[in-house]
Amino acid sequence: GSTLTAANWNTYATSVIDEATYCEANAICDQFQIGNELHYKVDGSTLTTTTLRSNLRTLATSVKAVFSGDVSYSTDVNDYTGWISEGVGDLDKIGYHCYANWSSSGK
Fold first, then answer.
1. Who contacts 38 (Cβ-Cβ below 8 Å, separation ≥6)?
2. 16, 30, 51, 56: least CB-packed within 10 angstroms?
3. Any bridge partners for residue 52, and if so which?
């Protein structure tokens, strides 16, 4: 996948809004996810994880203007505390991926 930067963020956001608009117009789903673990995609200099979370909160507001269902985002242990301390804004749901060491034998 592509690295997210300050220069290409608007392209990403526009594509998400376009997809949400399409989903709403065609009654495709009742929940729309604006991203998944995007903190692994930021360049870290022009777009930091803190700025990403802020941008995603703004994006959630924009998506809610065109999509009537729940708006969500998914993160993991490496970014979860930022969401807790900063808040989720207009997101209806935030998913948390809890990866753990396990084996198919249950041990």
1. 4, 52, 56
2. 30
3. none
